[in-house]
Amino acid sequence: MAEEENPDTYLQETEVEEVVNQDENEMEQDFEENEELDPNAAGIHSVMDLSVQGFFEHKDSVFCVSMNPVKVNLCVSGGGDDLAYIWDITNGEQVCQLTGHNDSVITVGWSFDGNYVATGGMDGQIRVWKTDSGFEFITATETTDEVVWLTWHPKGLFLAAGCNDGSVWMLSMPSGKVVQVFYGHTAPVNAGKFIPPGVGKRLATVDDVGTLIVWNPGTGATECRMTGDDHRFDPGNAEISAGWTSFDSNEDGNVMFLGGSSGKVKVVNINNSSILASLETQHESVEAVSLCSTLPICACASVDGTVTLYESSSLKFRRSLPHGQAVIDCAFLPNSPYLLTACADCTIRKWDVRSGQLLGEYTGHQEPILCMSITADGKRVVSGSDDTELLVFNCEN
Q: Of the CATH numbers 3.90.1170.40, 3.60.9.10, 3.40.50.10860, 2.130.10.10, which one belongs to the domain with range 60-394?
């Protein structure tokens, strides 16, 4: 696949790297301004069940969940009971049980057309079913180590998956054939995604020792490789060894925001391998990075209990959204300025990133939330928890 040159829509390439390290007084002021938003400020935690539906067949922690991009009622989930389920979020009924794994199912996902579903497990298997013909089993691929993540191409029937040994696998459907195995990482591949969003000309992957690789998915060639050998790109510091845990890219796919296990966020232009900024506001692992499609805002969710908002154009700190415990995920509702955050305090929250206002809290889980997925129409969010339950919340209000 030939790669087009995209202009840098964020910063001129001649600009130098900027380090954003928010002043402590500014952070204290920001938290004071948002203190009324902190659900734990009064030491009270609501356990009111505000869910509109639930699924209760899993017998162990629910590690992953994904909504069908076309059939908005269908959801797939995977858990520590070695099983995955397809179920209906409108009535909570089981549609299909997906079996065959010998260890925890820790990643699941649908193809862009909603006709295929894949599961990845700690047993090293990638298993795929065709869902438009009675849930026909297609293939089981034995990789060389635990499957950490999987992601479907946004326009084609190609599936990529990353493993704990650093290998990255790509399969083609409906044949189930392994068309590429990428070897370039020397540590667990923590995240991967086809970029740009909606186009998927390249495959970006990051690992546990601070390496970013951008691949040509057609040829397997490396188009960009950045490592911690360049101290400016190192996600850790002299005392702490760290890796990349999460990332997102702009619509052109030339600028990436990478979250690190030490709390750093690096902004890079992958067309010329330049570092545009180092955002150093958070202090613990950044578990999720999400770019807003309607505003120049980037949200970074951290184990330190904050979600930090940056201007994705100027790369300036905007504000911090306080949470009582670790934030494990964040995602924008489609075509909106509204951000959902999933927290270990058993609560999903809805925020208006323009003002930082807390618009809603969705409770019902009894143990930490481990995953969430938003419906394609943005009307519902589904969350999975250590309590073995999946709950559906109406996030329209």
A: 2.130.10.10
